[in-house]
Specification:
mainly alpha; single chain; about 70 residues
């Protein structure tokens, strides 16, 4: 939070701090849920894992018309 406060200077408000904290909490909760879901896959058989990995590696990455990766 200190870095945000320093970067924004006089523009930093309680409202911005609240929004920033809420956003970070949301991102962290999504990450935690993802880790928990992956951990629950520990009971998946090795063949199922290989199938999932093969599918993920073959999924194309979206690119723009200039061939650059879209984010």
């Amino acid at each position: 939070m200190l870095a945000v406060k320093e970067e924004l200077g006089d523009r930093f408000t309680i409202s911005i701090e609240t929004i920033y904290r809420t956003t970070i909490r949301y991102i962290l909760s999504r990450m935690e849920n993802g880790f928990r879901q992956r951990a629950s896959l520990a009971s998946v058989t090795p063949a199922e894992v290989q199938t999932n990995l093969r599918f993920e590696s073959q999924t194309p990455i979206p690119t723009s018309s200039n061939g650059m990766r879209r984010t």
